[in-house]
Amino acid sequence: MSEVDPLPGRILIVDDELAMREFLSVCLGRAGHHVTTAKSGADALRVLSDDSIGFDVVITDLTMPGVPGMEVLRHARALPHPPPEVIMATAYATTDTAIEAMKIGAYDYLIKPFKIDEIQLLVQRALERRCLSTENRRLREQLKGVDALDRMVGRSESMQKVFDLVRRMATTRTNVLIRGESGTGKELVARALHNLSDRADGPFVPVNCGAIPEQLMESELFGHVKGSFTGAAGDRQGMFEVAGGGTLFLDEIGEIDPATQVKLLRVLQERTIRPVGGNEEVPVDCRVVAATNRDLEAAVESGEFRQDLYFRLDVVRIVLPPLRHRPEDISLLVERFFDRFNREMKRELIGVSRDALDWLLAYDYPGNVRELENLIERAVALESTATLTADHFPSRRASADDVGRTPSAFPEDGLDLDARLADLERDLILAALARSGGVRKRAAKLLRISFRSLRYRLQKLGIEVGRSAEG
């Protein structure tokens, strides 16, 4: 018998002949393998379907009463990756059956009777192949993890903690609530949680709850059946069903109305939905990741947000720090955005000037990373010299932008803070409306706030926008 350095594995032997099962059990058991036997194809399917047992190699007879070996092969190769290697064994081999087995995914084909060293060597090679498949999968998972976090840039301690929490939570199904100011990258975190999970092959479905009208929210999330309301010309899947097998990202979760909050809580508890106008419960299988820039605790206190829903969503919390609290990350982000836009716009700028970097380091970024990205994109597009300068960054007016930055900028007689902030808010909203041609939804998008929030601010400030401006 040839010398084989044994690589131990979990082996399933499927054969309706007791003598063959005992022969292979002794032969492979002595080689250090853990052997399980099944006396029929039906028994083999039951054993293979047990999630607690993972086999490395299956040796199955081809011709058996009831469930044949080909069905065992199909079932084994359909198991989650990496599936076990399957060796077919038969005393009645034909070219057609051998070709069919190899097409389905059999590792090899043995003709009975076979020698002990022959089967031991074949099992060893099958184990080596499976080991290689497992290692390749592990390396792909590592590379996927690098790619998933690649767009999230930060060397600061606070961001390193975020990265660590994302990696640890990605492998669970636990509900995650992402907190952070507008522009801090909450959707990037949600995508990283999805891409690092075992649901990465499924869909990632983002839903901006602040952009959906209240009367359409239930239909958008849970779907509807034909004729359930005016305009429902046919059945339509909701986002919970669309995200089946993947991740549903509910952005601006604090904007959903109380009635939808009740229904959302039930879905999270029961894992079923009822489409608008429907009578049957539909099971759903998706992970829910939510995000908000609102103070949900205050919303719960005021009765705007259900406490039970808040606790259901806030199982694990990931808090994204604003950019002004992690200045050590600004240079890294500037480099990343500069390289990206320089390449995308086919510019040939050679770098960022000292004055531009100083300006960027001194700014406090109320719009966070998204604002920094927009600043760099605009500057790269407009720059006419060899290096990126500060010439195309916004001018900094002491009266509005720099009040409180330095003692000299603060008026000696003081100021009315609420009035000053209201004036600044009014100026920015009017500027956004002008830029959007008076279309309020576009203006809200420019201001990085929900349409509902803009509508409230317009009423508060007494700004009227004509019906025609809605487009």
TrEMBL record:
Keyword Phosphoprotein: yes
Alphabetical list of Gene3D superfamilies matching this protein: 1.10.8.60, 3.40.50.2300, Homeodomain-like (1.10.10.60), P-loop containing nucleotide triphosphate hydrolases (3.40.50.300)
Pfam family, one: AAA_lid_14
Domain called Response regulatory: residue spans: 10-127
Gene Ontology MF: a single term: sequence-specific DNA binding
Recorded coiled-coil stretches: none
Positions of post-translational 4-aspartylphosphate modification: 61
Protein name: Transcriptional regulatory protein ZraR
Biological classification of the source: Bacteria, Pseudomonadati, Myxococcota, Polyangia, Nannocystales
